[in-house]
Amino acid sequence: MPIHMWAVAEAAAKKQRISPESDAAGYAAGIMTWLLAGSVFVVVKIGVSEMPPWTFCFSRALISALILLPLVAGHYGDMIGLLRRRWLEAVFIGAIGLGLTQGVTFVALSHTSAINVGIIFALAPMATMLLARLVLREPMNGWQGIGLAVAFVGIVVIAVHGSLAILLGLKIGVGDLYAFCAILLFAGYTVLLKRAKFELPTLPLLVILLFAGSVSALPFSLWEIAHGEHEHLAMTGYLALAYTGVIGGSFMYFLYNWSIGVLGASRAGTLIYTQMIFATFFAWLILGERIEWYHFAGGGLVIVGILFVVLLRPKPAAASGTVGAR
């Protein structure tokens, strides 16, 4: 999902600002980014009833890449150079982040509510933090560990619909399990991307990763075609694809790239947590999905966990030979 832009920003963050706009403009672009991201959950939920999830994923990534491609024309040489040196690594990382992660998320949306997926995805940056701690040895203090545990409990509450019987019987919905798997894929993608440290600005790098994501989703899309899963494809599916590929895709990515240029990756990335609020609101408003008590309970625990993670993060070292992603 659009959440992967946070990883792109983290991987290629610059210490200097690249735009003279005010912080207000940066925050406005950032908030609009995650408003659109929240709307994507809802639009995909609508469209996936007609357009199979992997075809949706393949087409959206390809459309977004093609629209953004002319905007990075000045970087074609650097992009080609990166692919010549490290094409396998770039394709593999893009396949995980913009292919498998998004495809599995779309599958989740075909089995469970947009509210569930939106709230569950709020755990993604924290799952990334934990994996980065284990793999990259990035700092994480005890309070953040507690926040991660609290947020995870909140996700479990939502997945079992607040029912102890469902939890003990391990009758968690398949859609919620797919959403959780997407989170794990996203965390792996982010850590690999941060470790790779590709020497390329965010937008050109995103274009490469989008093309890689579309290529990785293509075999699954062909499988859907071979099994006749496109029989119900109609105008709603095409309109949903157009929205998620253009407005909720390339335009959204451009907005986020602008916001990190104004605010820096760390401040812009913090706004990602508003995606959960927007996704829940749009699902209630447009899809008529009910916000149950367990959504409030689980979402509240997730918010508490987020506050622990964001407000009590370790202070960066005063001096270091290597600059961290944040």
Description:
The radius of gyration is 19 Å and the shape is globular. It has one domain (about 5-310). The protein has helices spanning about 5-10, 25-45, 55-70, 75-110, 115-120, 125-135, 140-160, 165-170, 175-195, 200-225, 235-265, 265-270, 275-285, 295-310. It starts with a helix and ends in a 15-residue tail after the last helix. The protein has 14 helices and no strands. With about 325 residues, the chain is mainly α.
Q: What labels describe this entry?
A:
mainly alpha; 326 residues
Q: Could you provide a short overview of the structure?
A:
With 326 residues, the chain is mainly alpha-helical. 74% of the residues lie in helices and 0% in strands. It has one domain (4-311).
Mean pLDDT comes to 84
Task: Find the count of extended strands (DSSP E, 2+ residues).
Answer: 0
Beta-strand content: under 5%
**Helix- and strand-based class?**
mainly alpha
- Tell me the radius of gyration: 19 Å
Secondary structure: helix percent: over 70%
Number of helices: 14
Q: What count of structural domains?
A: 1
Low-confidence stretches: 10-20, 318-326
Major sheet description: none
What is the overall silhouette?
A: globular
Q: What is the CA-CA span between the terminal residues?
A: 21 Å
Q: Give the oligomeric state.
A: single chain
